[in-house]
From TrEMBL:
InterPro entries found in the cross-reference section: Cu_polyphenol_OxRdtase, Cu_polyphenol_OxRdtase_sf, Cytotoxic_necrot_fac-like_cat
Protein name: Purine nucleoside phosphorylase
Family: Belongs to the purine nucleoside phosphorylase YfiH/LACC1 family.
NCBIfam families xref list: peptidoglycan editing factor PgeF
Keyword field contains Transcription: no
Organism: Pseudomonas graminis
Annotated CDD domains: YfiH
GO MF term set: copper ion binding; hydrolase activity; S-methyl-5-thioadenosine phosphorylase activity
Key words of the record: Hydrolase, Metal-binding, Transferase, Zinc
Catalytic activity, as annotated: inosine + phosphate = alpha-D-ribose 1-phosphate + hypoxanthine; adenosine + H2O + H(+) = inosine + NH4(+); S-methyl-5'-thioadenosine + phosphate = 5-(methylsulfanyl)-alpha-D-ribose 1-phosphate + adenine; adenosine + phosphate = alpha-D-ribose 1-phosphate + adenine
Lineage: Bacteria, Pseudomonadati, Pseudomonadota, Gammaproteobacteria, Pseudomonadales
Tree of life domain: Bacteria
PANTHER family: PURINE NUCLEOSIDE PHOSPHORYLASE LACC1 (PTHR30616:SF2), UNCHARACTERIZED PROTEIN YFIH (PTHR30616)
Amino acid sequence: MTERVADWLIADWPAPAGVKACVTTRSGGVSVAPFDSFNLGDHVDDDPAAVAHNRSVLTARLNIQPAWLKQVHGVDVVEAAPAEVLEADASWSRTPGVACTIMTADCLPALFCNKAGTQVAAAHAGWRGLAAGVLEAVVDSFADAPSDILVWLGPAIGPQAFEVGPEVREAFMDTHPEAIQAFVPSANAGKFMADIYQLARIRLAAHGVTAVYGGGLSTYNDERFFSYRRGARTGRFASLVWIEAR
């Protein structure tokens, strides 16, 4: 069973019983400000010993092997490999106990599984990766039809805080004209407020995935989560999905 730790989140979606999904928060670790306290990012200038301790707590409490990635805002999808740190922005696994793991602090974490419960996947979707098709690439990593895939959208920057330039709006509208509905003019001339959750749903629907859950939390406004826009020197929380080992 997945242990509920502090105020960590358990994904609320109709996944098969053997599929588990969790999102950590800032609570439960040993990192000091501004990384307080459960920072899992080893690339943000936090004390490496603190990060190692936090990661060991994560592994022990969830009884999983997390597969960390070197995230680069791309579209590569790899098989989750706990013994390596692969350069990619998404991973998949069919191995029980191996957790596809994404770190974020405003970007969108998306967790996937098939209805059979035999494969899981996780994606890191900043606006660049989202516009380039990282979610679609994950869907294509499944042998299942898109209609047999479930997606849960984890905490990301909310539409009231995600101000972008016209080039971001154009990047989405070039391939999905309906994406215009996810942008509203900002109070700042020439800028737009973007709804990353709506953009994800539009792109997933266009790719045949309609069983999409989650969304609605804002890392910028909810201080349970790290947020790069709220404070550039900050930690990273993790979103994980795995098949439970029996």
